[in-house]
Amino acid sequence: MSDAQQGLDKAIRVMKIKVALSEQEELDRELSVLLKWLEPMLTVDTAGTEQVLTSHDALNVVREDHARQGDLAELQEAAPDFAGGFYLVPPIIE
Amino acid sequence: MELRKISIRQAAEAVSCGDISAHQLIEETLKNCSVLNEGLNIFTHLAGIDALEQAKAVDRKIEKGERLPLAGLPVAVKDDICYGVLPTSFGSPAFKEFFSPYTATAVERLMDAGAIVIGKTNLDDMSLGSSTVTSPIGPTANPWDTERTAGSAGAAAVATGLCMLALESDSGGALRQGASHCGVIGLRPTTGRISRYGLNASSSSFGQIGITAISGENIISAMEVLSGFDSRDASTAICKEKPVGQDIVPETRELIIGYPAAAFDHLVPDLREVFEQARELYTELGFQFVDLELALLPEALQAYYVIALAESSSNHSRFDGVRFGAAEEAGDLEELYCESRGTILGREARRRSIFGTLLLSKGNYDLYYRQALKVWNLVRREFTDALTKCDLLMLPAVNKLPRLCSEEAGFPDHWSDDIFCAPVSLSGMPSLSLPAGQLGGLPVGMQLVGRPFSEEILAAACDRMVREIKLFPHGNS
Amino acid sequence: MEFEVVIGLEVHVELQTESKLFCACPNSFVPEPNVNTCPVCLGFPGALPQLNSNAVQQALTASVALNCEIALFSYFDRKNYFYPDMPKGYQLSQYFEPIGSRGYINIEDDNGLLKKIRIGRIHMEEDAGKLVHAVSGDASMVDYNRAGVPLVEIVTEPDLSSPGESRRYLEQLKRILQYARVSDCKMEEGSLRCDANISLRPVGSEVFGSKTELKNMNSFKAVERSLEHEIKRQRDILMRGEKVLTQTLRWDEDKQETVVMRGKLEAHDYRCFTDSELAPIELTPEEVDRARAALPEMAEARAARFIDDYGLPEYDAGVLTSSRCLADYFESCLKTYNNPKVVSNWIMGEFSAQLNNAGLEADQCSFRPSDLAELLQMIDEGLISGKIAKEVLEKAFQSGKEPRVVVEEEGLLQISDQSELESIVEKVVNENADSVEKYRSGATRVIGFLVGQVMKETGGKANPGLVNELLVKKIEG
């Protein structure tokens, strides 16, 4: 088993996604397929090649530091649990 | 007014000089929409009364003497592009009733130019795909053969004359493949030439807004409105130096088309023949061809997916059940996350997030992710080099005819569909998808890929090529 | 066994900008939650970051003020992790290429000698929102007002050898950043936050011992105390021959001890990769030189100037320049009351006492420099005595009223009316025949007692010089 496959469990945990057992088994199979599918890319000789940083060539795109109060009306409408001006989540104990 | 028979310029002129009011035009269009939508399943939401109100407003502006380049013209907008007036679903059941608090720059620009949004078009779940089969409302049927998928609903809307323009997204090729499947023209512009602000892109590097229409000329009319610097999208800063409408398009005989013959070997013989015949036709029209090689297409596709998966895992992290999603009865934070994310993200989004994070994690990062970024650079170089030997590159847009609506795509076959489009996305160059011919009564499209900012040359070449084979579904001509 | 203490500090400082790092929402404290928010800082689908030029400028200023080498090319990366205060599921931060590196600041070590503390890196990043843990315990509440506020993180090399050095490093860092006008550095308000890494090793050892990370220190004093506590804890463990566990600990201010933080067991893998929605930042050597040249006068230079220009003793100059706002206060005061030593005495004495009592800094109190100048003028004009002036300062400081108003309202004006005083003097002379007799017999020192009696009678409002004069006249007749 490759490192990547060993990582599937952890990846599901890290991504915090509930996945049914049957789906996890499918993902496991798909992962083998994926890693095989990606093999040709791994053999490309990239010695001395710089990695691409961004998809565009823009540089130094900045805005002036002016504050503007946004329109708040609709921002929390999609929130499942919003009350008293706060977004609510289950209690967190530090 | 038959939208498929006139240009944007003519249509806008007809509305501007009062031959037909924007209101009349939109009323007529909406009527057609509701009829055709029954069979084809093009729209997630139709605008109805909102569109008519906007049409009235446009009519009032025209009365006051305002010049609007897209006066009263109906446009369709893919449902991964935010538009505050209608729900923006991202193709996800979790966002069925979601209203974006803001509207995408590209949509704003179209509206400012007088265009009317008639509806939001169907898409795959979270826009992850180029078939619409994973849409919660089911796939959009192909107007040429309703057993098959349209690939992109915007292309179907253009092909059936429901709109003059469709605003669509394209990462690995959804827009270009959809145009191919529906026999219309689709442009993925130079990276950064149309603002992405308001596009829910799963991949920040490759997600780009493009245009579908019936001609290259119409595409350029739209580009004149859409292109340009937008302070809300850093990538558009490249537009500051290059406005649309400045290129001088060479004579046909001066245009050299690069033909990477080996790339066409990825196709079944029938399909390859379509392109070979197209090449013959274009040669007769006066285009010059030069054979060349693009050696890295399969590896480019793989690199594309490594990067797209990684970015998708990050871009979709915002869907955490705190600001979006349904209220989950969760005892603790971990449960809230897992339940919410398991629900909001569909099967493909879950797959991409999990695999993406795996490829980014320690131990895999250098092997897969960093390697993909380097391959990306080699692919850019390969395209740049190729375009020193020619003005335009000819590539297929698709590797097969549109899928049957009932067909379940096997993994990773549905990714392999992007074999010709995704590499071009890596290159960052503009690509126009246009009909090259037909196979079994279905249109087959090819891409013309140009140097950065060469959209006008692509469009002009396209119109010279397509003039001969303009065909529409349903026996229209 | 003798142990050597090794400490490294990670300090987060909020930059003083008008707007947030990537959107135009105000960067200001407001009591109502979630009002300084917008689609960008809430991580709405399709919203893109727009970099604040002033934040870049301030980060550059901070970097040159801390003697850093400047990266002429830098950019932002995504640090991916889930927490409800992080709207996008990732934090934009300069992970791979910090704007500043290899800097240093000088402090005094525990023996009073100059010591150079190396700064490994300084980078820009966005702040997270704020979690409020409900007392009732059925939910935690999230406020995103702070999400997206620009920060710089400043990380030292493990050069600090004691809690005292750590505190002095923080004081010096705060002074420099305040002087450079990039942050107000108020730890109590969260605009400066500090985490500490600490380990012990036998004196002479080359290898580092296993370290713990300390969090949640809310004042410089808390940093010092928690480090002291942790040194003792680690020493005890090592003396028992056990191993210190690598852990994250939280300082419990109430119990004055460090507590292991829960939920931090799995080592974080942030799967960092470069963000492609923002454009990289390119600085020219000229811009860096300009930033260096534009650095405001720092504490040491200002103290020297105070000595030269105002003739202040070294001690005064040191105290006044210990914080920028105190020095500003001093100079502002001089504009209307040009007696440096008197102003210095009052600022170091009564004014600082009031500040300490209220837990405020000089720029936070409503007693303005002009108020102090006015107060001192009133003494010079003989309107109030120095003693009364202290009372006026206290009342004005606490009420926010102008000193002149306080004097009027409280009826504190000095009595300089001779006829009014003469009757009181006569009364005192009559009631203290013994003392008057003593005076007449040569014990003139007793005049002080008699003046005191008059002052008592007038509630301290009498002009003491005048009283003295009148008493002598009366007794000597």
Key attributes of the depicted protein:
heterotrimer, A: 94 residues, two-stranded antiparallel ribbon, 36% helix, 9% strand, flat, C: 477 residues, Arc Repressor Mutant, subunit A, elongated
N-to-C span of chain B = 15 Å
Helix/sheet category of chain C: alpha+beta
List the strand order in the largest sheet of chain B. 1-3-2-6-8-7-12-13-11-9-10
Number of domains of chain C: 3
- Kindly report the CATH topology of one domain in chain B: Amidase signature (AS) enzymes
Tell me what the structure shows.
The complex is a heterotrimer of chains A (94), B (477) and C (477). Chain A is 36% helix and 9% strand. Chain A has 3 helices and 3 strands. The mean pLDDT of chain A is 90. Chain B has a domain at 8-252 and 431-469: Amidase signature (AS) enzymes (Alpha-Beta Complex). Chain B has an 11-stranded mixed sheet with strand order 1-3-2-6-8-7-12-13-11-9-10, sandwiched between helices. Chain B has a two-stranded antiparallel ribbon with strand order 4-5. In chain B, helix 4 links the parallel strand 2 and strand 3. In chain B, helix 5 (153-159) runs parallel beside helix 6 (174-182), helix 7 runs antiparallel to helix 15 and helix 9 (297-315) packs across helix 12. In chain B, 65% of the residues are buried. The mean pLDDT of chain B is 94. Chain C has 15 helices and 17 strands. In chain C, helix 7 crosses helix 8, helix 9 (369-380) packs antiparallel against helix 10 and helix 14 crosses helix 15. Chain C is elongated and about 95 Å long. The mean pLDDT of chain C is 92. Chains in contact: A-B, A-C, B-C. Chains A and C meet through strand 1 and strand 3 of A and strand 2, helix 1, strand 9, strand 10 and strand 17 of C. Strand 3 (86-89) of chain A pairs antiparallel with strand 10 of chain C.
